Amino acid sequence: MNKLLSAITLLTTLSVTPSLAQAAVLYKVSDAQVQRCGSSHGLWTNRDISGNRCHNNYFSIDGMLTINNDSANQNDWTATLKATAMNLNNLEATIDLTFKDFLETSNHYVKEGGARYSKNDDAASAYNANNLAAPGSSDIDFFSSIMGTITIGNDVYEIDKYKLPHTFQFGLGANAKNKNVFGASTWIQQTNGAADRTTRMTSDHWDLNLNLTAVPEPGSLALFGMALIGFVTLRRKPQQSPLSILQNTNQR
């Protein structure tokens, strides 16, 4: 009975709390649900792809955002976005971006169709000041630097700055499109010193508008599976009847 209770306790604990050894927070990225040119999008390339025909510049996205927050020092926290996106002409974009310089608050939040944000309210919240923005909380957090590439066809675009003063923002309503959806957004640019053999943006900036769906950490899934197997085994283990227990006692 004690083993059964222990298994149930372990299953319950794993189902409601993150792993203590968690090294990263994983989110599946998908399109922010806003209709432009008949389709929602995750990447908008302004007018860089075949002029201003909007169906060329709105890309549907699929991939993973990984937030590395295992360090006790928030200044060391980073995030990576690895994804692919495709427009209605089946032109594919490969996105490989890294975000650094984590901020709990910002003076440069962009609302548009997203949630209202108050830096003062954010800073006054004990939870928001000490935790990473997560589904179920009102917290919105930021990364203030960016580097990486977006490759579209044969063109490699080096991404190394935001459209100032904006940053990468993530949290409830932070995708700038849906106030009740946990997501992220940013406005990206290049410096004048883009690397050789890369393509120059001709537009002022591009956008990322993302919905984020939490993905369980692989280690937690493995532990949960082991606990579940143990629970099922205990449930299937045959129980001795009172008569058999009495017979075993008499044989000793």
UniProtKB/TrEMBL annotation:
<feature type="domain" description="Ice-binding protein C-terminal">
    <location>
        <begin position="214"/>
        <end position="237"/>
    </location>
</feature>
<protein>
    <submittedName>
        <fullName>PEP-CTERM sorting domain-containing protein</fullName>
    </submittedName>
</protein>
<dbReference type="Pfam" id="PF07589">
    <property type="entry name" value="PEP-CTERM"/>
</dbReference>
<keyword id="KW-0732">Signal</keyword>
<dbReference type="InterPro" id="IPR013424">
    <property type="entry name" value="Ice-binding_C"/>
</dbReference>
<feature type="signal peptide">
    <location>
        <begin position="1"/>
        <end position="23"/>
    </location>
</feature>
